[in-house]
Request: fold
Amino acid sequence: MAGPDPTETATQRSPAVADASLTRRLEAIGTGAYVVDEEGRILAVNARAEDVLARPARDLIGHDAHDLLHRDAHGQPLPRTRCHMRQAFHAGRTAQAMEDYFARADGSVLPISWLITPYETGADGARTLVLFHTVEQPQGTGRQPEPPAGPLPELERLALLAEATAQLTSTLDVDEALQRLARLVVPRLADWVVIDLITERDEVWRAAVVHADDGTLTHHDDLQGPMPPIPEESPMPLSRALRGVSSTVAGPGTYQRTPDSGIAVEQRRLFDTTGMHSAAIAPIRSTRAVLGALTLGRAKDPAPFTPADLPLVEDIARRAGLALDNARLYQRQRKVAETMQNHLLPQMPGVPGLEMTVRYLPAPDASQVGGDWYDAFPLSDGSTALAVGDVVGHDLEAAAGMAQVRNMLRAYAWSQHEPPSRIVTRLDEALQHITDVAMATMIFARVEPADDGHWRLSWTNAGHPPPLLISRDGLASYLTEGHGILLGAGAVAPRPDAVTLLPPGSTLVLYTDGLIEAPGHTLDEGLKRLRRHAAALAHRPLASFTDHLLRRVRPADNDDDVALLALRTPSTPSPAGRG
Reply:
């Protein structure tokens, strides 16, 4: 075998690391398989491919698949312009060939049949799946034998199941999983797909009825919605599938007899409305329960479903069941955490003469609960306390620590008639001895009426991003005074206080760092972005100002929760001393 090409780059020759997640998926495929990136380099390969090619994974990963493997019938390198696989790869389409050749490690030429298809993994960049197996060389005519008869060629079946695994397991949103399931099966296997789900209250809901017509998917809302209860003894196909009994092939005649249940009535209406002449119905199961049923129907396609089609439909339904079960568990946990978070964060008090609005956005990839918080409450001297803080972490422990910090702050602020700096100092001392909170940042302030229609703001900053003050004319500036060390750092120096006047019609914004921090960008960039957009939005009503500010400023790749408190003083002067 020839030595290495002297033109081969160091990057091509250097060892690469396989994508472990992709490799695990490929091992479930019963034929040789590998995945390439958008440049055609091999990212992952299964053990079957290693055996057939007589090449270990380390000699495949990172190499251009065409240059390494593709040959003509005489073992010579195959020009890319003559490679049908390469053409399909660049076009991003599914293709297959019954006669082609790969090079093994010993230089011998291996006759193979292949299928190539785009492969969604949820990662950045395009991925393509290649499936192949060896074929016997035909005698005499030089033509390849016809593939064995069956409901779907084996390579297409394996490619579909691999795509189903990749797409369905890469989302934790139930609605998105249903949409992906519909796109997987129509029009590839049928021109209608119907998905019935069993709710947590054991009610049946027809969640999707989708029709494929000339490549366009249409959702039929009029056929979706609540379904009658599942009959316990009915032998009808959908009833059996919803009980997890079996998969069945059905047709319009199946439901022309006297209906034995409300579900049978709905199925007759479905066949009459859609014009389906054949359907394959399979249970959607998880490891714990039956979640529903998948129905594939054919109206335009004249070929009826046969029992030989059912194993493939069952395999797809099984993958859908695992994906839906995971999505439901995630959404259930998220709902519990979201409810807990909503109860932990307080309602804003009504303060005559002031407008206040608050927002909390959870971290996108966390369980809807974290350590960011806001608070506002009246003080015993008639002023109003404001606070925004961040306890380290994005889990239940951080949320519990946040609740401790907030409640202790309220107690100290109400009982101790002291400047904000002294209140925060007392809180810091207590945290180190009677809580599990390791570190936290916060701004604690008090606001009260002053002379000439202004409001007086006094505050201290414990390691937190500075407040932003925007005038009604759109002048925006950060309040950088009063800055001290964060809580939990063992501060020994006295914490500073700062005081400023809030002019009539001005807006004060207190926020947590999730609003301005983004990977790969400096904090100054985030602060400039916040100031620019806040100034542009100064004329909007406060609720609209807050919502638009969040949408514009929060980074798209934010992985942190955000708490925000916005306050606006009245545009017309109010008498001093008004509460």
Summary: DSSP finds 14 helices and 24 strands in the chain. The longest helix spans residues 310-344. Confidence is low (pLDDT under 50) at residues 1-15, 138-150, 574-579.
